[in-house]
Write a structure and sequence with these properties.
Blueprint lengths: L1 H5 L1 H15 L5 H8 L2 H39 L5 H18 L2 H14 L5
Helix pairs in contact: 2-4, 3-4, 5-6
């Protein structure tokens, strides 16, 4: 920040660039530049962006909580138990060896595997 305080023209140019980029979405900022000045318009732009940042943070929390729930439920799932997984894989391989059709082995074992341990 010390660099921007020493070079005031660069600071103002960056603020003006931010306002010009936001002008198609918030045209009133040009009126603030005309009446109150560049710094006032930039502070109004920051206040206008606050709800957007709040929404982004809320969406991020939803995504992370969903991913945490998926990870937690996967650890409880049948796929995370090696003995059950290997027995299902051996049974599926046996069905495939007997019938020669992968569809039969998948149709018999996959629904039980996907439902989970609570229904088996």
């Amino acid at each position: 920040m010390d660099f921007l305080n020493r070079h005031l023209w660069l600071k103002r140019a960056l603020m003006l660039l931010a306002i010009l980029l936001a002008t198609p979405f918030a045209g009133y900022l040009l009126l603030f530049v005309e009446v109150a000045g560049l710094e006032m318009a930039f502070s109004c732009l920051l206040f206008a962006l606050k709800p957007f940042f709040t929404w982004v943070r809320y969406q991020w929390e939803i995504i992370t909580s969903t991913l945490q729930a998926i990870a937690k439920n996967f650890h409880k799932h049948l796929a995370s138990s090696p003995t059950v997984y290997f027995s299902h894989a051996a049974g599926s391989a046996a069905f495939f060896a007997i019938t020669g059709v992968m569809l039969v082995s998948v149709a018999v074992w996959l629904p039980l595997f996907m439902v989970g341990v609570q229904y088996v």
